[in-house]
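Why do we bother with holo predictions? Because pocket geometry can differ from the apo form. Keep that in mind while you read this record for flavin mononucleotide.
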Amino acid sequence: MADLQARYEIMAGEGLKSAAERSLEIAGSSAVGRYLMELYASNGMGRTTDPSLHTEVSGVPLENPVIVGAGWDKKGRAIHGLYALGFAAAEIGTVLPFGQYGNEKPRLWTINQDHSVGLNRLGFNSPGDAVVDTYLQAAQPLPCPIGLNVGRNKTMPNETAAWAHERVIRRLGHYASYIVLGISSPNTVGLRGLQDKGPLRELIQSALAAMTEAKPLFIKIDSERSKHELNDMIEVGLEEGLSGFVATNTYMGSDLKAKYGIRWAREAGGLSGADPEYRKRATATVRHIHEEAGDKLTIIGVGGVDSAETALEKIKAGASAVQVVTAIRSTKGRVAEQINRELVKQIDADGMRSIRDYIGLDTKRGVKAA
Ligand SMILES: Cc1cc2nc3c(=O)[nH]c(=O)nc-3n(C[C@H](O)[C@H](O)[C@H](O)COP(=O)(O)O)c2cc1C
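The structure, written out:
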């Protein structure tokens, strides 16, 4: 176990993160580090706390609508640091049953000049649930809710995914306020097939059965589902008691990558961040789910969120909260605070009372309701 942990410590230098950001992340995992984070936070960063930002996802109260998306803190080491940077919650993971290195490096890039568009094929690097357990124990008491995103190892066939999810939920579920099934990464061969109707139904049933205490259950959805496929997922979700969707994961298609140069069009992996077409695609998925399911399913919107405007775009399309990954790096950790500060001003300028008043405004349902 010590060896495994050491190996993952070495891997820690990788990533979309600069050394400074990395140290911010590590700082969040010790008492002294937390103090430093708080100093950092009070030094011009800080949290905007305003009642107009209060929201919730499936009964989980959030101080503001901005959550750290899966992939930034795969181990549960940075929760205090991320909270100090203004986030309302962090989705930890994807956490797998067993430690796994992921794909060979290089496997993570930013592909435009201001580092706001990312490409990755990490391939579910995870220290495994036992190591994440030690980090989550060390992080107690948690400053905010966390989500737990669970997945299967690369060497496990899809038929064993239910077992893998159950195992991680049983071990770590008690730390989490909500659980997500990570079945949409483009970087594990065959994984996305788990979103198909049959496997999806089985996975929802088994994950709900694995919970010792009832918690909201979400499915992380890919960004390439057709409307027909989305409708199938919505139907199964509604029938099986799913709480909602985290929409969406990164985008695999070479059409968008090609805009950044032929080199990137040929590179395998998922595109993320401030690409306008990717962002639009993710928002369209949010809108479709909201228009079909309304309040019956909760949506956490993710994909290209980097400002109050792009956060509101997802919320007006039907998301109750948003997640951010790539923009944490391109804004040097400031993104949550920037979004929240601007949202408070926007809510006031629009004469609204709460961020919740915007949910779904920009959809057929919103127009009908108005
Ligand atoms: C470096 C990196 C690692 C990621 N790892 C995961 C993961 O382990 N599980 C998951 O469900 N999504 C993962 N994602 C997808 C993100 O959670 C998110 O859906 C996607 O990046 C779009 O958000 P963004 O535009 O704010 O980056 C990862 C994304 C990035 C950039």
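The chain is about 40% helix and 15% strand.
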